Amino acid sequence: MDTIENPRQLRELYGEPMERSVKKQLTRLDRHCRNFIALSPFLVIASSDPAGRCDASPKGDAPGFVRVIDDTTLLIPDRLGNNRVDTLGNLLTRPGVGLIFFVPGINETLRVNGRAQVTTDPELLQPLAVNGKMPRSGILIAAEEIYFHCGKALIRSDLWNPEKRAARGSWPSLGRIIAEQVGGMDPDEAERQTAESYRTRLY
User: 7-157 domain in CATH 2.30.110.10?
Assistant: First the structure.
């Protein structure tokens, strides 16, 4: 099997990056970046543990749920989830993170790389409260690399095309999937618990 084993081989295969793809990388959030984050209801955050095992976690809420504190600082509220806290645990020892912001209907995405820490500061978290409920913690990110990513991946995938959406009935509910994967659970009860969690534990 042919594999790439060093940077030289990689460059021989791909050549040098386009000049503008290097120059577009920013170290501060300009007005375009801020406006995109204000429109974004969804992002994926990537982190890694001390052993180098990687994790990517979705984060979503109303557009603009990520607070831009200043030109280099972002705050992501940590809403209710499954309490695995994989990302938060990773950040305690490996603060490096990568974010990718999505805006429905726009093919371009915004990437932010930097270093993060977990905060419980009520002065920072209170403005992110929803329905009177303040997040238990937030991910405070010091941005180091910021750039817009071209839309080729989303164009190829036709991600925003409503005609390409999978019919809900073509895929089992999460409750039924977990009941089958874990075993020893009643599928109907697992489905009910999942639906109840979606209804009562968003915030």
Answer: yes
